[in-house]
Design a protein that fits this description.
Elements (H helix, E strand, L loop, with lengths): L13 H17 L22 E7 L4 H16 L4 E7 L5 H10 L25 E5 L5 E6 L4 H11 L3
Parallel strand pairs: 1-2
Antiparallel strand pairs: 1-3, 3-4
Length: 164
Amino acid sequence: MPAANLRVVPRVPEKFALLFALCLATLLAGGCEGRNGGLQTLEGDSLDTAGKVLVVNYWAEWCAPCREEIPELNAFYREQKGRAIVVGINFDQLTSEQVTEQARKFEIEFPLLAAAPPGRWGQAVPQVLPSTFIIDDRGQWRQTLVGPQSVASLAEAVAAVHPQ
């Protein structure tokens, strides 16, 4: 056999192989949760969203329509606990302490997420506030509601993806 046909295969250092294996294991383990699973509140609690529609509201302190919408979101959260879960995400990505203070100030009763789930539901961060994502009980994005919502409009959006 001529020597020109032989190839030298570079050896992967063991450190890199181990690092790759650990990263792969972490990714696989994280992918075992449901698409809605793994949402963490500001308090560090995990939300159980199995079988429920997720109503994800993006809000900010400086957004007057967001502040006006909060009582409607609170009422919907209280009325729909068994069927839908309302969660809020602060658009400005403030610290947990700052968001907690704003939540107290605006009397937000529904859970607030510690951070926006990156790439979750295949949607970009909204550029208009308030915006509300409707995520069905299988973890799939179904609709984005733009502007302040009422209990009735939220109930209609949830009913469209999860009839009783």
